[in-house]
Amino acid sequence: MTYQTPLSTSDRFEIFEQLNLHQRYIDNDASLASAQTYITLYWPEAEFSVKDIRENVFRGVEGLKQLYDYAHSVFPLHLMRHALGTFVIDGGDNLAQVEWNWIVTWKAEKQGVVSTGTYTDRFEKRDGVWKCLSRASNVDPNWPADLFQPWVDQQETTFKAS
């Protein structure tokens, strides 16, 4: 696709910073304040789809809050750390497409990689601000689904809203 105005270096850096903040904010605690901080990375009508051992789509502010709460109450995120892998940012005319790899590792009690995958994002710049409009998370096919299944099986009893 050809754009009238290609992304500037500054635009690319601002989007890159958003990717880093996503990984940092998802590792915050399970509080309402942390959930609200995480949601600021997205436009109000944003959509986030997750494909791992389940397929879910979270829409809008309430959906993103549910995604954050789900991740923090169903999985032991306090024992994990998210990191940004390689990425490609393309676009122009206040729109950007980003493909990037994510890595989740243990930070306590265990060693090694928990899971890896890819995010495919669409960003939009409004009034000089870049935010995510849509994000799709696809876990890599070699991930340890058996590790996550017990947590998913208990989600009815462990899910808590912030």
Automatic annotation (TrEMBL):
Boundaries of every SnoaL-like domain copy: 10-135
InterPro entries: NTF2-like_dom_sf (IPR032710), SnoaL-like (IPR037401)
Domain of life: Bacteria
Any single Pfam family the record assigns to this protein: SnoaL_4
Protein name (database record): SnoaL-like domain-containing protein
Species of provenance: Massilia mucilaginosa
Organism taxonomic ancestry: Bacteria, Pseudomonadati, Pseudomonadota, Betaproteobacteria, Burkholderiales
